[in-house]
Amino acid sequence: MADTEEENSRFGLFVAISLVLTLLLTLILPMVFSANKDTVYSAYVTDSSESQLNMMAETLGDGGEDYSIANTMSTPMLVNDWKDPHRTLLVIVAPEKPIDETEASKIHEFVTERGGKVIIAADNTNANRVAAKFGVTYQNAPLFDEDQHWDQINPATQEFMPENWRNVWGLSSINESVDGMSESALRQGCWKTNLEIHSFDGCRMPVMFRSPTGMMVENFSEDNNDNREIKVLAHAGRGACIDVAGDGDCGNDLNPAPGNLSLVVRIDYPNIETQDYKAGSSDSRSDIDVTGSIVFVSDQTAFSNRLWDFEEGENTGMSAECIPSSHCWMGKMSGSNTEDAWAIRWNGNEYFFKSLIFSMMEFDNQELSNTIKLSHSNFYIVFDESRHVTGIMSAPFTDAMATIVLLTSDSFLKWLIILNVLLLLMVAIMVVPEKSNWRHVFDLTRFRERPEKVDPGSYRKRVKEALMAKVRIFYDLTRDEMALKPPAEVQNMIGDPRLTELAYSQNRTYSPEELRTLLQTIRRWGKKS
User: Fold this and answer.
1) Which of 219, 232, 241, 309 could be bridged to 257 by S-S, CB 3.0 to 4.6 A?
2) Residue 112 phi, psi (nearest 5)
């Protein structure tokens, strides 16, 4: 029995140590991985202004477009649990952590079944799992474009710096595929008045990128929706290449130059049925048709403070015109008067993306109540902060939140956890030994294991009680049945004269040595055949 208790105690100690080690690793490892790493491309961090998105959040939120701004810290898997997904835009900029398969499936469902809106901007393959579900592929190397690049000015000397083919610009439409636009529309810039009245058809705008990658729209995708509308809003130059070799040479066979690399791709899913307040009947929700939309952008810096805000860009060497480069968007679009001049100048990427977001939302939905459409605050923009490196102290908690949401939101994982718990219980049952029958370990000689010393004067009484208890148990009697037995019958049950004398003699005294001998006799009693 002592060996069994020791084994159980040791097993419990191992379990406790394992739990403590697991807890420490859960806290320490995220802190180690996030050490010496800054959070970039966040809508809530302002300490490194050029590589953050706080200006974008301010422009779209209070004091700007007045959208309701929020963020998600755990995982984009929660998108389908949000209220009014068809009036919600998820913004994933610079995913430093890859979007996994489960998250990608939830985003696809959010767009194609719930009418949600999504913008994903990346310059690597971290977003490829979700892009593949829509038939888009991100390349994993920078884009080099000799025809569509902009030149940077040294803020200190005001001189133009050497050409950098990674500084790419594109002429982007807002809601039309450039492959289907007429020649006149391709040369038409979006006037300022066009943007103010939200008339986006038949015009394009310059959009700046800094070291983007290229995207390919594939013929095959995991999405079999025949109603989807694929729109390439902006192309790279025909001679652009992906610098896989890292030498910046578009003549190198190792650097693919397919001639149709995309910078901005939009995919719309019309006629998705949902419920909202309908025009002419704002008292209750009714069925309406909405459009799900997702936009893939080949560069996260297109949303950064430097490229979002014209003044911020100008202070860091940007220019409204791409002079002295001979390949400039001003030569690709017509315009003569002052209004046209504004349209073909770069005024910050904010004007393009504000117009793009407006066109993605349901402001043109004739079925939606005007009361909803009159206020931008009824539409939500959610920044995904879970893809970024977090602070050292907050990393364990954000990772724990993401894990909990992942485990509780995916039905397959939930059942997998339940099965694992059952398996652990079965292992525990098998490992913990069954308690032995105490009748098989009946040992009265181990007085030394008692926590308190026994009074020597009670030795005989205790030995006698042990004898009577063993006789009673041997004959399977209760205490009451044993008490009703006459002495003669009990003596006959005992059978051994020495033990009978111990049980009934009043005058007999025993030395400790004699009691030890009787204890051995009691142990052997009942085992004789």
Assistant:
1) 241
2) -85, -20
Strands 143-144 and 117-121: unpaired
Region at 462 (left for phi over 0; alpha for psi -120 to 50; beta for the rest): alpha
Residues 211 and 229 in one domain: yes
> Looking at the structure, do residues 351 and 420 belong to the same domain, yes or no?
no
pLDDT digits (tens), the chain, 529 positions: 455 556 656 666 776 777 677 666 655 555 555 455 566 788 777 776 678 889 999 999 988 999 999 888 766 667 777 889 999 999 999 988 888 888 898 899 999 999 999 999 999 999 999 999 999 999 999 999 988 988 888 877 878 888 889 999 999 999 999 999 999 999 899 988 888 899 999 999 999 999 999 999 987 656 667 789 999 999 999 889 999 998 888 888 899 888 889 999 999 999 999 999 998 776 788 999 999 999 999 999 999 999 999 888 888 888 777 766 666 787 788 765 566 667 778 889 999 999 999 999 999 999 999 989 999 999 999 998 876 665 555 555 555 555 555 555 555 655 666 677 677 777 766 665 555 554 545 555 554 555 566 666 677 888 888 888 888 888 888 888 888 888 888 888 888 888 888 888 878 888 888 888 888 888 888 775 4
Is 506 part of any domain?
Answer: yes
Same domain membership, residue 426 and residue 295? no
- Tell me how far apart the alpha carbons of residues 332 and 41 are, in angstroms, rounded to a whole number: 32
Whether 80 maps to a domain, the answer reads yes
462 and 432, same structural domain?
A: no
DSSP state string for 138-168: E-SS-EE-SSSB---B-TTT-PBPPP-TTSB
Rounded to two decimals, what is the model's pTM? Answer: 0.70
User: In Å, how far from its chain's centre is CA 362?
Assistant: 28
Please report whether residue 102 resides in a domain.
no
User: Is there a single domain that holds both residue 22 and residue 127?
Assistant: no
Residue 143 sits at the vertex; the CA angle it makes with 140 and 146, to the nearest 5 degrees, is 165
Number of domains in the chain: 3
DSSP designation for 255: S
Same domain, 325 and 227: yes
CA-CA distance, 116 to 292, in Å (whole number)? 5
Nearest Cα residue to 402 out of 40, 103, 126: 103
Which residue segment(s) compose the domain that 344 sits in?
Answer: 38-86+114-388
134 and 271 housed in the same domain: yes
